[in-house]
Amino acid sequence: MESYRQPAYLLILAVLALSVTLNVVPEAYSLPEPSGYMINDWAYLLTWEEDDSLEGLCRAIEEDTTVEVYVVTTTDLEGYDLSEYSYRLFNDWGIGKADVNNGLLLAFHYVDINSTHFSYEFRIEVGRGLEGVITDSEAGRIGRDNMSTWFDWAYFYDGFYEGILELYNKFKDDPSVVSSEGTIIGFAALQAWAYANPLLAGVFIGVGLWFAGAMTQVALLRGRIAAVPLVFMAGLVLFAWWLDGSLLVLFYSIAIAIGATVTVRGAGRVRGGGGRTEGGGWRT
Amino acid sequence: MNRNQITCIVLLALVLTGLGAFTILTYNGLVSSKLAADNKWAAIQVQYERKIELIPQLVDLVENYTEYEEDTLTAITELRTQWLNLNGSPTEQANVSTQLNLALNTLFVAISENYPTLYASTLYQELFDEITGTENRITMAKLDYNDAVTAYNTALQTFPGSVIGGMFGLETMPLYLGG
């Protein structure tokens, strides 16, 4: 009996493992990850105080109107043209609240020509919900009159400050840009957090499941009743289910519990980056 | 019936159910990515319409200021009419759109070189910003469309999709090139 069963289980396991491995899709393009700040001065155009001041301005604007204004300065467009870069970055980061799409991105590309000369291009990327108040021509006027005039003389801080203020003046009195996504508290906040961080929530529950599993084994080995750890385990599963209806948290936690039980060997091994040689070099 | 046979039947039933579920899931995934690509195609059309709607404004404005640009303006108006009479063929659309862009560029260059008053006027600046802005939206919509089509085509041509797509007669979609 046992000899029949063993290969069948192995086969099922192998098929499962294969289907997981084959479904890995390669990353299409690489964009910078959100840094958690609204001002991302990657081209080092602002002093620390200026950066901080703009960050304060943008956060105050978000507090006031829920509009999210982000600034990105960069010397490297990751191979994209400026328009595509700002478009992809905007949508990748999801700037603005989802219900009204009230995001703004000022993407600034700085080119260092030599020690005395620079050139720049920048784009005001307007979220869908703000298009009514900030039309392309409005954005063009603000960009030309309130920003470029400063940027031309390398007053980057003043350009951004005046530009953001000018944009703020456009949308501050418009109720349609205000997001109704209120702040959530209590259990709903926990669920929202789990929805946003399914992997992290899965880690906590997964470790709990693994612990309960281990305790079950201990109880069985010592000839005691395994009901308590089993109930604990069932409770954790139900909790994960309640936490995230899409079952992603449950999936992660079970995967982690299994992974913690079956220790994967060699997972930390350093792997090559896929480079090739054509046989060049030297030998004795 | 001994236990071995029962095990075999249960295993077979499990495998068959699994295969059925797998087929349904793959097929649904293919169809939804195709619908997503169709949606992106519609988004391109919306932005094109926006651009076409701006053209009469441009023609009206430029007519009053300029004396020697009649030919270009007529060409632009004609291309706009051609566009409105198109019946949704992508190649023809790209063709008219390319010609329209060429004509518009000729006009913009002529204005910036020969009509400084018009070029500096707020009205023209705003219209120019609107048109270039719409042009940018069109480009981005095309990027999105091509991304969606690539995702769909990849799903359709790689392993599980290729078999199931072939079973249900799904075909690859063309990328939007040029225009």
Characteristic terms for this protein:
heterodimer, A: alpha/beta, Diaminopimelate Epimerase, Chain A, domain 1, 2 domains, B: 179 residues, mainly alpha, de novo design (two linked rop proteins), 6 helices, rod-shaped
Given this structure, which CATH class of the largest domain in chain A is correct? Alpha Beta
Would you tell me the structural class of the helices and strands of chain A? Answer: alpha/beta
- Biggest sheet character of chain B: none
The domain tally of chain B reads 1
* CATH topology type of the largest domain in chain A: Diaminopimelate Epimerase, Chain A, domain 1
Q: How many angstroms separate the termini of chain B?
A: 69 Å
Task: State the shape of chain A.
Answer: extended
Proportion of residues in helical segments of chain A:
40-55%
Topology:
The complex is a heterodimer of chains A (284) and B (179).
Chain A lengths: L1 H21 L16 E3 L6 H18 L2 E7 L7 H12 L9 E10 L5 E9 L9 H16 L4 H16 L15 H10 L1 H24 L5 H17 L4 H14 L23
Parallel strand pairs in A: 1-2, 2-3
Antiparallel strand pairs in A: 3-4
Chain B lengths: L2 H63 L4 H15 L5 H25 L1 H5 L1 H36 L1 H9 L12
Helix pairs in contact in B: 1-2, 1-5, 1-6, 2-3
How would you portray this structure in words?
The complex is a heterodimer of chains A (284) and B (179). Chain A is 52% helix and 10% strand. Chain A is an alpha/beta fold and 284 residues long. In chain A, helix 7 runs antiparallel to helix 8. The relative contact order of chain A is 0.08. Chain B is 85% helix and 0% strand. Chain B starts with a helix and ends in a 12-residue tail after the last helix. Chain B has helices at 3-65, 70-84, 90-114, 116-120, 122-157, 159-167. Chain B has one domain (3-167): de novo design (two linked rop proteins) (Up-down Bundle). Chains A and B meet through helix 1, helix 3 and helix 4 of A and helix 1 and helix 5 of B.
